[in-house]
Amino acid sequence: MERLKIKKVIGFRKGLFDLKIKLVALFYFTGKLIGGEIKPKYFIRFLKRLLFFLSKMRHNKYVKIGKFTKINLYVPAFPSEAFFTACSKVLEFEKKMPCVTALVSITSACRFKCEHCYQKFDKGKDVEIGLLVQTVKKLQDKGVAFFNIEGGEPFMVFDRLIKVCDVIDNRSEILINSTGDGMTFDRLTELRKHKNLIGIMFSLHTHDPAKLNNFMGRDDAWDTLVNGIRLCHEVGIAVHFNTCLMSHEFYNGTFEKVMDIAKQFNGAILQLIKPKPAGGWLESGVDQFSEEDIDFIRKKVTRFNLEKEYKEYPYIAAMVIEEDKSLFGCTAGATDRFYINSKGDVQPCEFLNISFGNIKEENFENIYDKMRKQFHIPGDCLLCEKYSREIFKLYKDHNLKTLPLPIDISEKIYNNWDRGEPAEFYKKVVEI
Fold it and tell me: HSE-up of 397 (CA within 13 Å, CB side)?
């Protein structure tokens, strides 16, 4: 098969592309206005909101993947139908804006033993696939434009993976997280039929094969990764990466070496994950990042994303930038994203080990609405960091064997928490 073309867009060309987005969006939504799908009194405000959101992409490198272009990890590629689904988020003026991103685990099955896994204590039987498919369909009808599908390892339960992908039509984009375990040419070829699949995201936490094997708990982790990347390129599916680095690794050259290997692997996007005190790291806690560290990382990321010298490197979607209060803050609780684990627990975020209910035991809409109500006003407090010690204490005090915390115990966390103030984007967008 023909190799998928990946092209990075920065500088003057990025400015021109922004203009193209604005013009296409104007014509697209003018059609919706004429068709009576948008109230005239909101149209100008809606366009201003879109422009405001686009202005927040100024630190991003754009990535053209085949015929479509990613301007942000969680924003579907332009000009897909899913892109316009995401744009419609800011079309809501009378109620809380819809959630546009869902992280869905389809299985806990995994042969690796990553020390940091936020699912480490998510023990239980995988939710019945028919119920999960039904829930995913409901989410798409609610406006979710981006589905991040993961495991465990989703390719170990390929029949479940296909059933979930089959129900997601072109109103939403699909990204699949994988270690490469269980991947085959035929399976990827089957997945490639889904035109809304934007790629496979692999874990790349180090440039060193031996260190990766040790971190993931198997001697074949690196070889499995490399084989998966090779198969994706052969089939014509875009390759992305996520990497979780400690603060000192941004000073000792590790970050640059990871970026080098990601470039060699022809990666399109690299998600830079900040270590979080969840799952395997809930008890021990994580490496602390000072304000100086975050500023140092922000400058590095900006150079790699915007400077010509680094144009051919993957676009870096950095958590330390996007979760800052000057941008989006904490988007958990279906403010912008949320998580359903493999056994059906509805969590505000994969890093926040509390539950608002389980889809096997309660009506999903009731769980979802309860969570959205608790997160009615977006906050800038990083709840997974601030309340991790309290979550662990409750876990120990109640002699629990699994996470997330049960519903009644989870209430002890969220009934009295302080979620901070609205982050800049959410504070200003509702004023437009």
Answer: 10
187 Cβ contact list (under 8 Å, min separation 6): 155, 158
Are 351 and 278 contacting, i.e. CB atoms less than 8 angstroms apart? yes
C-beta of residue 259 within 8 angstroms of C-beta of residue 269? no
CA 222 to CA 229: how far, in whole Å? Answer: 11
Q: Crossing angle for the helix pair 221-235 and 209-216, nearest 10 degrees? A: 110
The per-residue pLDDT for range 248-270, each reduced to its tens digit, is 999 999 999 999 999 999 999 99
Tokens of 246: 């400690």
- Partners of 8 in the beta sheet? 63
The tens digit of pLDDT for each residue in 284-337 reads 989 889 999 999 999 999 999 999 999 999 999 999 999 999 899 999 999 999
- What count of Cα atoms within 13 Å lies in the side-chain half-sphere of residue 388? 21
List the structure tokens of 50. 């879109």
To the question of pTM greater than 0.85 for the whole model, the response is yes
The 3-state DSSP class for residue 119 equals coil
Element (H, E) at 11: helix 11-34
Angle between helices 129-141 and 158-167 (to 10 degrees): 30
